[in-house]
Design a protein that fits this description.
The chain is of the alpha/beta class. About 30% of the residues lie in helices and about 25% in strands. The chain has 9 helices and 11 strands. Strand 5, helix 4 and strand 6 form a beta-alpha-beta unit. The longest helix is centred in the first third of the chain and has 11 residues. The two termini are about 30 Å apart.
Length: about 240
Amino acid sequence: MALDILPVIDVRNGVVVRAVKGRRDLYRPIETPLSASADPVAVASGLLRLHPFDKLYIADLDAIEGNGHNTGAVMTLRQRFPKLDIWTDNGTAGAEAVYAWFGADRGTLVLGSESQIDGETVRRFRHEPRLVLSLDFRADAFQGPPELLDPARWPARVIAMTLARVGGTDGPDFERLEVLRSVHPACRIYAAGGVRGKADLERLVQLGVNGVLVASALHDGRLDASEIAAFARSPQHPEGD
């Protein structure tokens, strides 16, 4: 079984920032050997030189925190890499905003549970193929309306986002992933937060997890090109046009 590996870009004020254990107040512009700058296009290009990923996950931190948005950066990335499936979490909540996003053809939309007022929007769009649900956790506390933990409301793809492990080296939340995998075997489950290297990817495969979001391990070199290629699904989209 292969893993659907998505590199992650956290964007604030138009630049890519480095995650620090989910402590968004500590995020600073990224410094990485993969890119000469923190510009989103430059960082994305560096990630695609490492491996021809076919998906990219973007967290628009300004939008999630209610301090503006980086939709322009998302659209620039879509224009620069038209074959890349870009997943964006921008704090969207409410059916009108979801319709507007898809109407503008802005790519795959991630609905973060921490941003939802209730479970209605997810329920309404659960059959939309361009929608992904992120179940957000801080420690053992679920962030969002409790009804979103009901598998009957889930779309086809669900991210298990352990926020305190994002940008850390504590490893994925294997126990929670195993529970989510068991309660909805037909759902595609994606792990997010804490990947340290090859051994973690091996265990995710063993658990039957379908995909994983990764950032720090790529920039730190804890996952190299050969290891990524060994786990990733067959690459389809080289960098740019």
